[in-house]
Write a structure and sequence with these properties.
The chain has 65 residues and is an all-alpha fold. The chain is built from 3 helices and no strands.
Length: 65
Amino acid sequence: MLIIPIKEGENIDRALKRFKRKFDRTKTMRQLRERQQFNKPSVINRKQKIKAKYIQRLRTNEELS
């Protein structure tokens, strides 16, 4: 549970913005979406390898340029 202390005289919009930022950093929505559907470990590993190859390709292209 997220607790956002509101300071004396603080604008509600500012507190709401802090709440949204804190909520995004906890990655709650991402976890909920992942739990909606089961992914096999082999599929997860394959996606990680594809992502790693992509990032490596970007880095090598950046070094060559």
